[in-house]
Sequence to fold (383 residues):
Amino acid sequence: MTLALGKRHEWVMQSEIRAMSIACDRRGGINLSQGVCDMEVPVEVRRAAQEAMEAGLNTYTRYDGIAELRRAIAAKEERFAGLAADPETEIVVSAGATGALFCTCLALLDPGDEVIVFEPFYGYHISTLVAAEAVPVYVRLEPPDWTFTARDLEAVVTARTKALIINTPANPSGKVFSDAELSLLADFAVSHDLFVFTDEIYEHFLYDGRRHVAPATLRGMRERTVTISGLSKTFSITGWRVGYAICDAAWAQAIGYFNDLVYVCAPAPLQAGVARGLEVLGEEYYRGLVEAFTRKREMICRSLEKAGLRPFRPAGAYYVLADISGLPGGDDKEKVMYLLDRTSVAAVPGRAFFNGGGEDLARFCFAKEDPVLAEACRRLEAL
Ligand code: PLP
Fold:
């Protein structure tokens, strides 16, 4: 037999995160490796999805989502980020932010197009680009504040550069791009005529009084930006697969057609649940999220410090990168395995977020119910 797997499969092989989750399960450990948020889903969201199912909203929806949800997303973006969008032509509901980015890449990139990505990166961004036959090009962010300069960007841009990905707040670094950085990126995108794909899935997870700025709201950015987000994290519904892209109608239509091709639509009754959540949950819900996650951030950072694993305190999102160079082991993979063996707490080796490098780092996810997180912290402190 001469049958063989296609070349693309190499890019979607078992990721470090999945591998650590499996190793963790095998030991019955506490999994701080995967970004799975196991918090409670707001009752309004659950109930509206159940009602929609009972009322018969169980067939395909319009390829870009039900009208209530597109309208609710438009209202929320306007209210929260000052980003105005026409719900009829400029919003595509997809299978999570992941689906929205994939369809965006299929619709707007050609094979060989280069896309600038900040490093440390979220691995799915890279795999998505490669699956679309685009070429990721890296700009490294420097710790402790994960900074970059205009020179770093100019050094990598070429005639083939087509787009830039901005993930703010970022996974895994927790970086929240400052106003000055966003304006630098906007000037750069305008001067090189680039698309900007954002990933704003952690837009409601910002600490120490920071506020979210949607890059599309900066001067010259509205027409070139595809704003991507979703409710997986905000409503703790990672398994529901509801996210969206907002952009100029010219791009939205093509993105929507790819959404139709790949997913047909996002799950119908779950779209209704999300729409209700966006409509009825007010400021106090979002404030409650920030308070709860600020507390969790403090718990994990304190324990990592006590364990001698210096944390890079995140400004947003719900991950913390920590310096694991002091642990026994030849590299980051061996060090996190040592940690798992000694404490039954799983983290992700830093290499998963770099195109070469990251060996001194591990990522810990703190989106866990308080008792589970407290137990993980107790174990880490005992190290
Ligand atoms: N984007 C980032 C940066 C993430 O960390 C994650 C999940 O970990 C996602 C997107 C996934 O979002 P969704 O569930 O909406 O596809």
